[in-house]
Design brief:
Layout lengths: L1 E9 L3 H19 L2 E6 L4 H7 L5 H9 L2 E6 L3 H4 L8 H11 L4 E7 L12 H4 L3 E7 L9 E3 L6 E3 L5 H17 L3 E6 L5 H16 L4 E6 H10 L6 E4 L1 H12 L9 E5 L5 E4 L16 H13 L3 H16 L5 H4 L7 H11 L1
Parallel strand pairs: 1-2, 1-3, 3-12, 5-10, 8-9, 8-10
Antiparallel strand pairs: 4-5, 4-11, 6-7, 11-12
The structure holds 3-isopropylmalic acid and magnesium ion.
3-isopropylmalic acid binds next to helix 5.
């Protein structure tokens, strides 16, 4: 089959890790007899530098015209250290999410047997942990009205959710749970926040429509603790935008490296697949970043195109590389560390 895939490498290590995922997808193309038409577009700080905005219209048009988007990372320290910058790379990511209607971010967290010892948590705690964080992605405090008072001594970010927004993300969480272990944990702060009480109200209604799924409720502070103490307890965790941002980074330590976790952002228009880590500017251009999260994001992309055997082949070869110790410096420890490009070459050759 033939597909059009938009590549948005972005900043920092983005281009290097996207290159490796493309190598792997080209191997899939060959092995399974498909045609992937890749087209690259600008986003992030490099787009600001070149055309003055982080998510240019040409990039959006390409995304809309594609079957899927593979995204690297965005962000540049020159903006992080300048709170007064008028345009920021992150605005590009948020604009993309909003304009593509990507209301859900799916972050699966699984452990890799050969890497269990890399987790800062005890083996008996993390071994076998397998859950999904379903994060609402186009609402809440990220997108509410924000600003400064006239005298600049106060700032505000509003958090707003509508019933419809909560319903559609919970519906997706229930869909995932139905295909998994049939448990949904709704994470909120309903003891304090009005938006959280709306979430809980909607969830309590939807719970009754999903009797085959066990629903439980957890305050976010408690969830932050339980995630680390009993990660195996979770199946599908669903939560609002900012709680999901924080909890999914926290969840990534379970696997031992932030460089391993993929994600899918799905919603109304073209889906976007990206590693959960950032642009890691310190490593940019050094050929040392871990490409696995991006390669596994490509596997999620293949799955979304209904190429299930192809996605499994990518996951299998990733597991093989981890077992064989063909890994980058973040997980190599005292053993030999492979370069980013060497890991990509190995995966493509062994797929
Ligand atoms: C993420 C990132 C983004 C977010 C940033 C870069 C805006 O942390 O995708 O988790 O906060 O959503
Ligand atoms: Mg984040």
């Amino acid at each position: 089959m033939e597909f059009k895939i938009a590549l948005l490498p972005g900043d920092g290590i983005g281009p290097e890790i996207i290159d490796q995922a493309v190598k792997v997808m080209k191997a899939v193309e060959k092995k399974f007899n498909h045609k992937f038409n890749f087209e690259t577009a600008l986003t992030g700080a490099c787009a600001i530098d070149k055309v003055g905005e982080p998510y240019p219209k040409a990039t959006h048009d390409l995304c809309m015209a594609s079957d899927a988007v593979l995204f690297g990372a965005i962000g540049d320290p020159k903006f992080d250290n300048d709170p007064s910058a008028k345009v920021r790379p992150e605005q590009g990511l948020l604009k993309m999410r909003k304009e593509l209607g990507l209301y859900a971010n799916i972050r699966p967290v699984t452990t890799f047997p050969s890497l269990i010892h890399k987790s800062p948590l005890r083996k008996d705690i993390v071994e076998g942990a397998d859950f999904v964080v379903v994060r609402e992605l186009t609402g809440g405090i990220y997108f509410g009205e924000k600003g400064r008072s006239e005298d600049l001594t106060k700032a505000f970010d509003n958090c707003v959710y509508s019933v419809e927004e909560v319903e559609r993300i919970l519906a997706l969480a229930y869909e995932y749970a139905a295909k998994r272990n049939k448990r949904v944990t709704v994470v909120d702060k309903a003891n304090v926040l009005c938006t959280s009480r709306l979430w809980r109200e909607v969830a309590q209604r939807m719970e009754k429509e999903h009797k085959d799924i066990e629903t439980d409720y957890m305050f976010v502070d408690n969830a932050a603790m339980q995630l680390i103490q009993w990660p195996k307890k979770f199946d599908v965790m669903v939560t609002e935008n900012m709680f999901g941002d924080i909890l999914s980074d926290e969840a990534s330590v379970i696997t031992g490296s932030l460089g391993l976790l993929p994600s899918a952002s799905v919603g109304i228009h073209t889906s976007v697949f990206e590693p959960i880590h950032g642009s890691y500017p310190q490593a940019a251009g050094k050929d040392i970043a871990n490409p696995i999260a991006t390669v596994l994001s490509a596997a999620m992309l293949l799955e979304s195109l209904n190429l299930l055997d192809e996605a499994q082949a990518v996951r299998d070869v990733v597991n093989k590389s981890l077992d064989a110790g063909v890994v980058t410096i973040d997980i190599a420890g005292d053993a030999k560390a492979y370069k980013t490009s060497e890991v990509g070459d190995w995966l493509a050759a062994n797929l």
